[in-house]
C-alpha cells in the first residue's frame, strides 16, 4: 500500500477505537479491505489521460459501490480528487471528520478570559526566536491550507529559510530550478492551494524539502522514517535551519500515543533536540453538518465575529489551545461563504481575487475542466486554480458532483493573484477545447 493508505488508516483507527470488542475485529477486517480496494481504484484512475478523467473514474467507482464500509474509506480518496479539480464544496460534503468533545479539551476560550485576534500576526509573533513551526491540515479541506500559504511570507521575513511538506516526492530534483510544482512534485500538490504553498515558498527563497517516508512503512515506522528524513535533510546539515513544516492531522502532536507509537513531530523533537511550535488547524473548522462541528467551535462561531482565521490570547499574553498537551496553538476558521459555487476563502484573505469565467470556452463539450496557469510557467505546472463545468450531471446526487452555477451559460470564478495567466479548457479525454490569455488585476473582474 502507498503512504496514502496510512492517511486512510488514521480514520480506520479512530473508527475501530470507538467499536466494541465484539465488533472491533470485524470492523478492522472490513476497513482494511476497503483501504485495499480504494488503493486499487485510485491506481486505476491515475492511468487515465488527464485529471478530469481520473476524477470522473473515482466518482463513478463510488457510485457503483454502495457498501457503507467501503464508502467510509473511499469517500476520503474521492475527496482528494475533488480538491484537485477545485470542487471544494463537494470535498467538504464527501468526507467529514466529526469533531466530538474529547477528554481534556479546554472550554470555550471566551469563558476563560481569552479574546480573538488575527491568527496571521499572532502566530508570527509566537514564532519569533523559535527554530521550527509545524502546521497541520485536513487533506480534504483546502481551507486548512490557506493560512499556511499566508504565513510563509511573514516567517521568511523573520528568518525562516526551509519549508517541508508531507507527500512531496524526494526524487523531484528539478523543483527549485523549475520554480513551480508539477505532477512530479508530490501527491497533495495536485490541489492548487497546496501547489500555491510550495510555489510561494520557492518564490520567497525557502529551501523546499521532501520528508515523506520512502518505504511502505505504516504506523509508527512511517512516523519515525518521516522524522528521520526531516532531521537529516535540515538540522543535521545546518544547525542554523529555521524550519516551517506542513503536515496532516495529528502528525504534529507534541505528546501522547499515535497509532502504535509516537507522531512524526515527537520523533523529530527527540532526534533533533528542537521543540517545534505546533499549530492545529484541523479541529476548529466549519463542517457542512453543524453536528460534526466541535462544541467549542460552535460557541466560537456563535459568539465571535470573524471573517479570517483567528487565535485567542489572554491578559497574560498566553495563546489558547483546545488541547494544550497536544498542540501549542489552536486556529479557528470562519464559516464558509460561497460565490458561484466557489468558497471565498480561496482568495487567501485578499492575496487573490475572483476572475469570472463562463462555459463558452468549453464549446458545449461537458464535463469540462478549466485551468488557469501563470503565464511564465510551463504547461506542466499545477494551475493557480481549477474548476469543472458539468451542467448536465443532473442525474448525479448533488453531494457527488462538481458544483456549478445555475446560470443559462454556466458561470463560476477562478481565484487568482494579480498577473498574467493562460486559461485552458479540456474535455474528459484530455483534449484541448480552447485557451486564452488574461490579465488578472488587483480586484480581478468582479
What is the CATH topology classification name of the largest domain?
Rossmann fold
The tally of strands reads 16
Domain module count: 3
- The global form is globular
Radius of gyration: 21 Å
Main sheet specs: 6 strands, parallel
In quaternary terms, these chains amount to single chain
CATH C-level class of the largest domain:
Alpha Beta
- SS class: alpha/beta
> Per CATH, which architecture of the largest domain?
3-Layer(aba) Sandwich
One letter per element, helices H and strands E, the order comes to HHHHHEHEHEHHEHEHEHEEEEEEEEEE
Q: Mean pLDDT across all residues, rounded?
A: 92
- Sheet-strand content, in percent, reads 15-25%
Question: Portion of residues in helices?
Answer: 25-40%
Strand order of the largest sheet: 4-3-5-2-6-8
How far is the N terminus from the C terminus? 45 Å
Supply the number of helical segments.
Answer: 12
Amino acid at each position: 500500500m502507498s503512504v496514502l493508505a496510512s492517511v486512510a488508516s488514521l480514520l480506520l483507527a479512530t473508527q475501530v477505537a470507538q467499536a466494541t470488542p465484539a465488533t472491533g475485529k470485524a470492523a478492522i477486517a472490513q476497513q482494511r479491505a476497503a483501504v485495499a480496494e480504494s488503493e486499487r481504484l485510485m491506481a486505476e484512475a491515475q492511468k487515465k489521460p488527464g485529471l478530469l478523467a481520473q476524477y470522473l473514474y473515482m466518482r463513478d467507482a463510488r457510485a457503483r459501490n454502495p457498501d457503507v464500509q467501503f464508502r467510509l474509506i473511499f469517500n476520503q480518496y474521492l475527496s482528494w480528487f475533488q480538491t484537485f479539480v477545485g470542487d471544494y464544496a463537494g470535498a467538504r460534503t464527501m468526507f467529514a471528520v466529526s469533531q466530538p468533545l474529547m477528554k481534556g479539551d479546554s472550554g470555550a476560550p471566551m469563558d476563560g478570559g481569552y479574546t480573538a485576534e488575527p491568527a496571521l500576526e499572532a502566530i508570527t509573533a509566537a514564532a519569533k526566536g523559535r527554530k521550527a513551526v509545524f502546521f497541520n491540515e485536513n487533506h480534504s479541506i483546502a481551507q486548512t491550507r490557506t493560512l499556511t500559504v499566508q504565513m510563509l511570507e511573514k516567517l521568511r521575513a523573520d528568518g525562516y529559510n526551509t519549508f517541508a511538506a508531507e507527500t512531496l516526492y524526494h526524487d523531484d530534483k528539478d523543483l527549485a530550478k523549475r520554480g513551480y510544482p508539477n505532477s512530479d512534485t508530490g501527491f497533495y500538490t495536485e490541489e492548487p492551494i497546496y501547489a500555491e504553498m510550495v510555489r510561494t515558498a520557492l518564490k520567497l527563497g525557502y529551501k523546499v524539502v521532501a520528508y515523506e517516508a520512502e518505504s511502505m512503512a505504516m504506523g509508527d515506522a512511517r512516523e519515525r522514517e518521516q522524522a528521520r528524513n526531516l532531521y537529516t535533510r535540515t538540522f543535521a546539515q545546518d544547525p542554523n535551519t529555521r524550519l516551517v513544516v506542513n503536515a496532516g492531522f495529528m502528525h504534529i502532536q507534541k505528546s501522547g500515543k499515535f497509532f502504535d507509537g509516537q507522531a512524526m513531530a515527537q520523533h523529530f523533537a527527540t532526534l533533533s533536540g528542537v521543540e517545534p511550535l505546533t499549530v492545529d488547524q484541523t479541529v476548529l473548522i466549519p463542517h457542512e453538518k453543524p453536528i460534526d462541528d466541535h462544541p467549542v467551535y460552535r460557541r466560537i462561531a456563535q459568539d465571535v465575529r470573524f471573517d479570517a482565521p483567528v487565535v485567542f490570547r489572554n491578559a497574560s499574553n498566553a495563546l489558547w489551545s483546545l488541547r494544550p498537551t497536544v498542540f501549542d496553538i489552536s486556529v479557528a476558521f470562519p464559516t464558509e461563504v460561497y460565490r458561484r459555487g466557489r468558497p471565498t476563502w480561496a482568495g487567501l484573505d485578499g492575496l487573490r481575487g475572483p476572475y469570472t469565467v463562463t462555459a463558452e470556452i468549453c464549446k458545449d463539450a461537458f464535463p469540462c475542466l478549466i485551468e488557469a496557469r501563470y503565464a511564465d510557467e510551463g504547461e506542466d505546472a499545477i494551475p493557480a486554480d481549477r474548476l469543472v463545468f458539468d451542467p448536465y450531471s443532473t442525474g448525479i446526487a448533488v453531494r457527488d458532483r462538481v458544483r456549478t452555477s445555475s446560470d443559462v451559460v454556466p458561470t463560476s470564478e477562478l481565484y487568482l493573484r494579480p498577473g498574467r495567466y493562460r486559461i485552458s479548457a479540456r474535455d474528459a479525454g484530455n483534449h484541448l477545447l480552447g485557451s486564452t490569455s488574461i490579465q488578472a488585476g488587483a480586484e480581478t473582474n468582479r
